[in-house]
Write a structure and sequence with these properties.
The protein is an alpha+beta fold and 228 residues long. The chain contains 3 helices and 10 strands.
Length: 228
Amino acid sequence: MNPVLRHGGALVLAVGLGACTPPDPPVLAPAPAAPAAIAPAQRPASNDDMAHRPIDDAPAPVVTPQADEDSAPAVVSVALDHAGDVLIGQRFSEVEAEGAWHSAGLHEATQGRCEYYERGTLPEGVAMMVQDADVVRFDLAPIDDSGQVVIQPGPFGLRLGMARAEALQLLPRGATAQPYGEDPEAGESLLWQDPGSDLAIRVEIVDGVVSRMYWGASGAVDLIEGCT
């Protein structure tokens, strides 16, 4: 046989065998990491920050294993730095003209250092404490204790009237319990400090249920008597 033909036939055979070889499997992108149970601490609030979220954000979908009834639910939305469009650390003068505000009338008693406001651009049932013209805290309760039923949820899905055990399940790990004020019989406070910022939340428990809650700058959250 002609050497050229013999080599050509071998080449055709090699090509034919190569065509029968299955292709390499595609390289798959790595699976995305599972989202954390607790959202990372948000960056400090900025007056230029326009990405405001309501405190009752719809949580992002999270795929988690089936949990038993005693397991605490995953926390996927943390909002201790704002209520509606109002940010902790923001000057009240920046939002004053954006709505009709109702104040507690403490301006004169505190010589202008501290005041409570509600309505305006805040969600229904939420009030805010303003110290030295800065927003420092939000309260989930009417400022005049009018008995209004507040259905607006607070951070982590906490609600007024919720049982203590349920509130503890919703709070992140690390929450501490302490007597409310100096009288142990008056109730207790559940306090959680965000380890990544100066933000905190305090939940007051009276007769076994959530009666009020406060969130924002930790120094203001700790004030039992508020402006007074």
